[in-house]
Amino acid sequence: MTFRPPSKSLTPRDYLFITFVVILFLIVSTMLISANLTLKGGGDFYVHWVAGRAFLFDKIDPYGAEIPVRVQELVYGGPAQAGDEPYILDTPFHILLLYFPFSLLSDPQIARAIFTLILELALFSLALLSLRLTDWATPPTFVVLFILFCIFNFYAFQALLEASPVLLLGLIYASILLALRAGQDELAGALMAVSLYHWEVGAPFLFLVAWRVYREGRGRVLAGFGMLSFTLITASILWYPNWIIPFLRAGLNNLRSDFGFTTHEVFAQIFPSQNGALAWVFIGILIITLGYEWSTAHSADLRKFYWTCCLSLAAAPLLGFRTEMGHLAVLVIPLALIFAVVHDRWQSVRNGLPILLLLVVFLVPWAGYFFGLPRFDRLAREIMFLFLPLFTIIGLYWIRWWAIRPPRTWADLANRQSGLGTPSKIIRATRPPIVNRKS
To answer: Fewer CB within 10 A of the terminal residue: the chain, N end or C end?
Structure first.
């Protein structure tokens, strides 16, 4: 009997399915854009949109004093008050170039609605990639719950309200880890090239990745980074040759603003009698801890490296830099690892414990928003800010032993109800999984 390979051409049923998916996507996108038009805020996007339009059409310095005035008028209806974000542009000009297509749209609400749609799609993709990073055969029920959690949790809601690019950055961070694991080094380098802003969100993570790449001698990552960075920086210098000094000046001005959260201010609010001394102790311990973990991760296997990347993301908001509530949305990456290892190791309650932890992370910030803010205001905000990174760091150290160590023997796998699978699967694997895969 002669067997013929399957036809590579699409069948009428395939075309029908593709058409249905495209139509469904367009309908959902249109509905989301309509909903996004009703959102208030959006200053994190408007500062880039206004700066781009001012530079393209009015020939105004995007780092000048006129830009915050225009953005504040859009967001607040007038000058910013004490405690409001001043919206000073501190994005490098070669990254600002990526916002220019949106600046061609004259209506700020439409531009913001389209950009928010991209953020919503990025948030959905971030949820899926975070689960994929864990190498966890995720139960379908938990996949749905995790996606809903990522979309509707308090911190993602804050990021969407401000149209913060942090959701895109989170997707880029997860994609960098996946690209490195898959050996797609040029792609990883290119992704790193477009993630070099909002340092308060990902600086420790990017530093660790760069150090790991250097220690492994993966020159193709540098090639991908260099090619895209050279293209963008060359275009930026040709377009605006003297942007570096105004950019640095704007960055310093933004650091002096009193908007957002810092570890010093949070500790001073919670422990007023200590005058911020505890914050220095806490930051010092955190830096020493990160230094130790980094020193062991640069040459460790993928498990340890991935776990340390998650720790770096969780620790970044607490290192003393001024940051915002919505920036914590990127912590869904380490949260996925925590849920995966908990499900894998605590078999007697594995179906319920990850869901319980997910509900805790989801409900506590919203409870603080609805019940804590009306009564305690600033103190409630500080606690809500501290909650997620502290929960994530504690969770990462809780599961550290199981997350960074493979199963001891094949027999250990065979005797467990949930594991990586059969020995043949282990033999076929080209890289060690990050957590044990369910057979």
So the answer is: N
Q: What is the value of pTM for the model shown?
A: 0.88
C-beta atoms surrounding 177 within 10 Å: 24
**Conformation bin of residue 276: beta by default, left when phi > 0, alpha when psi is -120 to 50:** left
**Of 381, 357, 389, the residue nearest 204 (C-alpha):** 389
Amino acid occupying residue 300 = A
User: Position 427: which residue type?
Assistant: I
Residue 309 token pair: 């990347």
Q: Which residues contact 87 (CB under 8 A, 6 or more apart)?
A: 43, 46, 47, 67, 68, 71, 72, 75, 80
DSSP 299: T
pLDDT digits (tens, 9 = 90+) for 8-46: 677 877 778 888 888 888 888 888 888 888 888 889 999
Report the candidate in 303, 308, 282 with the shortest Cα–Cα distance to residue 293: 308
CA-based Rg of the chain, rounded to a whole angstrom? 23
- For residue 116, count CB atoms less than 10 angstroms from its CB and return exposed for 0-12, middle for 13-18, buried for 19 or more: buried
